[in-house]
Amino acid sequence: MAAISQKTDFKKKGMAFGLDMYHALQPSSNIIVSPLSVRLALGMAYMGAAGQTEAEMRNALRIYDDKIESGKAFFHLTCKYAKNENIRIANKIYVNEGRKIKPGMIKAAEKLFSSKVENIDFTEPAAAAVTINKWVEGQTGDKIKDIVDPHSLDPDTVVIVINALYFKCKWQQPFQSDLVKDDFWLNEANSVKVDMMQGVRENLKYAELEDLDCIAIEKSFEDEDFSMLILLPNSKNGLQSLESKLTGLDLPSYRHRLKAKNVMLNMPQFLVSYQADLKGALEKVNGQ
Length: 288
Description:
This is Serpin domain-containing protein. Belongs to the serpin family. Helices cover about 35% and strands about 25% of the residues. The chain has helices at about 5-25, 35-45, 50-60, 65-80, 105-110, 125-140, 240-245, 250-255, 280-285, and strands at about 85-95, 115-120, 160-165, 180-185, 190-195, 200-210, 215-220, 225-235, 260-265, 265-270. The protein has 2 domains: about 35-170, 2-Layer Sandwich (Antithrombin, Chain I, domain 2); about 180-270, Alpha-1-antitrypsin, domain 1 (Roll). The chain is of the alpha+beta class and about 290 residues long.
């Protein structure tokens, strides 16, 4: 397999993992989750896994059977954004003082994920949580706070694997500065007035996807490595139906169907905060 096609394949598998993760979380409200962040954190843990645990993690993460090839793919992914000022990816492993993890995992974390490995005293959970949370805040522009609850730590905790991902970039074509009140539909009968960001007419990638019963629009950021893909159901109560079609969806093939069209995109101004225990979701992903 050529290097470029292998990178593409790993990226495609990552998209599949993201859609599986979204479905497994069974959102009943607004959520925000970074499959890339989850995949990197678990990828570090995977490098130290063996036996049944290794097999289950490999299946859930949609990575290669060959651990060396998976490590190379994670390395290329980490390097790709290492010097990009719009996205910051930071990995870290905290090991309980007096406990040891496999030297191979430490080597892989440092070499393949650019991760630091630090000893910490989990017999002092409050102090340990402060240390970890301050590091995460520093890596995310103070956007992610209190990621670790001190009550989740105890002297038997061996290791905590952390990935912090921070993204900030301007739109290629900004929205207008003035907000307007407009209807946001909750279902066919009910709507609420929300602050809406007003777009300007611009050429965006656009498609009407009949098989998904939705409209797809892709809006680029200044850094063209990044874009937002929006899937808008044709029906006001069509979100649940659309979500049910996402599992196993070959998203890259759908993106190729988008063509440039002159449109004006208005979007609600929104702030989303979300926290979840991924254990159950990962078990569902592994079973798919």
